[in-house]
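Figure 3 (text version): structure tokens given as input.
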């Protein structure tokens, strides 16, 4: 039986954290050398996006941790503990952390990534107005820019379609201007509504 099939059976076709039945996929809990049903869980797209800090944290969504913390599945316990630590500044999460128990082996696994030391804040690519930018978006330059190492001058008002996010720097995006891919600072662009 494949891992996803095992997890679907165990979870009865629901996210093992929030109980949603939408957009389910296997989440392999880091760190691990080999995936199995003890170190992998089935979660929905919303949980995955927030675990991986690809969308703003939603404290209301994570109220479900009050239930998942009692799961007998080791992976669910570890992920629940990590997430509760992200929200430890909120009373509901602190109360749940006080009640939750992990044995020494599980606690060392939960602490292995260092995620418990982070808060729920997320660094996302944002335009000059604070709107979240995604790969494939269209933006407009709000300032004329000279492109270093080139004779190109990108004029204010230039539309840049199908941008790509620079993965390790939330202040930069890549876009094509006059046939050349350039790096543009997010503070100089405004997201164009579709």
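Below: residues designed for each position.
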């Amino acid at each position: 039986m494949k891992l996803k099939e095992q997890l679907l059976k165990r979870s009865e076709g629901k996210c093992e954290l929030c109980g949603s039945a939408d957009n389910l996929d296997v989440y392999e809990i880091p760190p691990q050398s080999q995936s199995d049903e003890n170190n992998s869980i089935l979660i929905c797209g919303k949980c995955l996006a927030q675990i991986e800090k690809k969308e703003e944290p939603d404290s209301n969504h994570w109220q479900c941790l009050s239930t998942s913390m009692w799961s007998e599945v080791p992976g669910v316990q570890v992920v629940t503990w990590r997430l509760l630590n992200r929200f430890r500044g909120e009373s509901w999460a602190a109360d749940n952390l006080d009640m939750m128990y992990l044995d020494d082996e599980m606690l060392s696994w939960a602490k292995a990534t260092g995620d418990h030391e982070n808060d729920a804040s997320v660094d996302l690519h944002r335009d000059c107005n604070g709107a979240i930018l995604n790969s494939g978006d269209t933006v407009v330059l709000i300032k004329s820019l000279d492109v270093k190492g080139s004779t190109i001058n990108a004029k204010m008002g230039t539309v840049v379609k199908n941008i790509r996010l620079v993965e390790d720097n939330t202040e930069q995006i890549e876009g094509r201007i006059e046939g050349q891919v350039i790096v543009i600072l997010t503070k100089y662009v405004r997201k164009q509504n579709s």
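The chain has two domains: 3-117, 139-191.
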